[in-house]
Design goal:
With about 600 residues, this protein is mainly α. It has 25 helices and 5 strands. It has a 3-stranded mixed sheet, with helices on both faces. A two-stranded antiparallel ribbon has the order 1-2. The mean pLDDT is about 95.
């Protein structure tokens, strides 16, 4: 087994004849769809166009996945960049199909029942998507304007996004090694992995090296972020959305009432999480003979806690840990993990030229997925592995549906991944003695704090950026100020206000998308929904597995409220979210008990 992923099941390389042959099919398919969309006169024509969309989407996804995976593993790949550019340019022409189909469905929906027509023509599974297209027409420009906007994005937000990926992938830090002495040049990803070191001097030195590195790219990063957010603001106005958040909620099929209930619960419970951070600060102060009386320094957020004999969690250990605990839930979930390990679907370790972070992407045409990690031998990395495999499990379930139902809303995208984290964490906690339990408990709370308080800070930051960008471009100093304001508002007295992270806007790739805004609250939604679902699983483990798989398959063909209702969950009720947070609050109490 390799520590780098293998893409041969998609294509064997950019010189592969099959890749060129498939790419050459795309342009005629686009022309066919645009012509078909221009001639819509009845629902039989809609069914015909849907079948063409299925074939085109599957082929585009296959080619695009190969190019994007290749670029993520090597941002210097000229072939990957060329194909991504050509795909985006070609795909922009499908805007005409989308506008024409949406216009026809919007007109039809005034006199006909789309659900009944879809049933009669054999595409009932796409009823939700068809109705959503009809509703979307109110937010579309003309077909020429939508095509132009898609084409311009290729040299606008898309190009800025790619630039930011390249800046980060080659950013290096001058790390002043407090253990071995001397200054070493290391990548930004290696430097950030040192935040999990068992030595507080290493964590502090890495934090200082990281912050010292960002000025090298801050002007370019600020220009990229400012350009992208300016483009999004403009297009939202032209498409009659009140603001980018309004657009995100519409695209996610999520009601404002749901988001309000989620944030109400987070704000109500924030003091409990701040208490956890202060308890961790007190524990570390005593253990390290440091003085963290003003709250936890940012560089200690990921500090390992506990007296486990082996604080390292190498990749082989992580694979066994994840697979064993997945098997407790279902043999099918364990099989998905084993396939990913044995068939080389995972790119494991950081290296120069590789993008930061972690992600999972699927390839519908071959019913597989790929995972990119920047593994650093910590327990947190093992949990990240479980998280990404959760995405993979969701992919394997939903790829049983038609391809047009595989694009599920962002908030639900994080549910299966976090559910897998919860399975792994809770299964392990049940069997560990206190000294080992503390390490895993801390990791779970660390993650929960990130996806609740830190995600809330990211939401506040992005909201402020969009508002400020309405009347002027944004400079690095202004962005750093927004980030510090957001962190203080979210973390309160849990973090030392003098030791925050003003450059989080530069390292997080989610801010740099022109097509997806506010990719932050979906993590909080997914995390808490997963906790709530885990409570349901505990009540009836035997019956839950089948219901859960059906829920995952439904996530692309229902609204968020309706898909969650299939499991008896009301996501507009703040009491559900408070109950989900109660699961975490119990772990905070346990953490405080053990650390004392």
């Amino acid at each position: 087994m390799s520590e780098k992923w293998c893409l041969n099941d998609i294509y064997t390389g950019f010189d592969c004849p099959a890749l060129k042959a498939d790419f050459d099919k795309l342009s005629p398919m686009v022309d066919e769809m645009n012509l078909c969309a221009a001639q819509l006169s009845n629902f039989a024509d809609v069914e015909k166009l849907v079948r063409k969309l299925e074939k085109y989407t599957s082929l585009l996804d296959k080619i695009g996945s190969f190019a994007s995976f290749s670029f993520a593993a090597d941002t210097e790949s000229a072939d990957a960049q060329k194909y991504l550019y050509q795909i985006d340019t070609l795909n922009a022409e499908t805007s005409r199909t989308q506008v024409r189909l949406a216009a026809f469905l919007a007109k039809l929906s005034k006199t006909e029942d789309i659900a009944l027509l879809a049933q009669e023509h054999g595409i009932a599974d796409y009823t939700y998507q068809l109705n959503h297209m009809a509703d979307h027409f109110a937010h579309l420009m003309s077909e020429d304007e939508e095509t132009l906007a898609a084409q311009m994005a290729n040299t606008g937000s898309g190009a800025w996004n790619m630039l930011q990926d390249k800046l980060i992938s080659h950013l290096t830090c001058e790390y002043n090694d407090p253990i071995n002495g001397g200054v070493r040049t290391i990548s930004i990803n290696e430097c950030r992995n040192l935040a999990y070191s068992p030595d507080h001097k290493v964590r502090k030195a890495a934090y200082e090296a990281e912050l010292a590195a960002y000025p090298k790219i801050e002007e370019a990063s600020a220009a990229a972020l400012s350009a992208i957010k300016g483009e999004v603001n403009l297009l939202c106005r032209l498409r009659h959305f009140e603001n980018p958040l309004d657009k995100t909620l519409f695209g996610s099929s999520m009601t404002p009432k749901t988001l309000g209930a989620l944030f109400e619960a987070i704000n109500k419970n924030a003091p409990k999480f701040r208490d956890y951070m202060k308890a961790k600060a007190a524990y570390l102060s005593k253990k390290q003979n440091t003085d963290y009386k003003h709250g936890l320094p940012f560089y200690e957020m990921f500090a390992p806690v506990g007296e486990s004999a082996d604080t390292r969690f190498d990749y082989n250990k992580a694979k066994k840990f994840v697979t064993d605990n997945f098997a407790r839930f279902s043999a099918g979930m364990a099989k998905v993990a084993q396939d990913a390990f044995e068939k080389n679907w995972i790119d494991v370790f950081p290296r120069d030229g590789k993008v930061s972070g972690a992600f999972c992407g699927d390839v519908y045409a071959i019913k597989q997925f790929r995972i990119l990690l920047n593994y650093g031998d910590s327990l947190s990395d093992a949990i990240t592995l479980a998280h990404e495999l959760g995405h993979g499990y969701h992919s394997m379930q939903i790829m049983n549906e038609g391809i047009l139902n595989t694009n599920y809303p962002m908030p639900l995208a994080e549910t299966a991944s976090t559910f897998c984290e919860t399975i792994v964490t809770n299964a392990a906690l049940a069997e560990m003695p206190d000294n080992e339990k503390l390490q895993l408990l801390e990791n779970s709370l660390q993650d929960a704090t990130q996806v609740l308080l830190d995600i809330y800070s990211r939401f506040l930051f992005e909201q402020q950026v969009f508002e400020a960008r309405l009347d002027h471009p944004l400079a690095p100093e202004e962005l750093k100020g927004f980030m510090l304001d957001a962190q203080r508002a979210a973390y309160g007295d849990g973090l030392d206000p003098a030791l925050l992270h003003p450059y989080m806007w530069a390292i997080k790739p989610h801010y740099y998308s022109g097509s997806v805004s506010y990719y932050n609250f979906p993590y909080a939604f997914g995390h808490l929904l997963a906790n709530g679902l885990y409570k349901l699983y505990e009540q009836d483990p035997a019956a839950f597995g089948g219901k859960y798989d059906s829920f995952l398959r439904a996530t692309g063909k229902m609204s968020i409220k309706d898909s969650c209702a299939t499991l008896g969950v009301d996501v507009e009720d703040v009491n559900f979210w408070n109950g989900a947070i109660d699961v975490i609050n119990k772990n905070i109490d346990e953490f405080k008990r053990i650390t004392k």
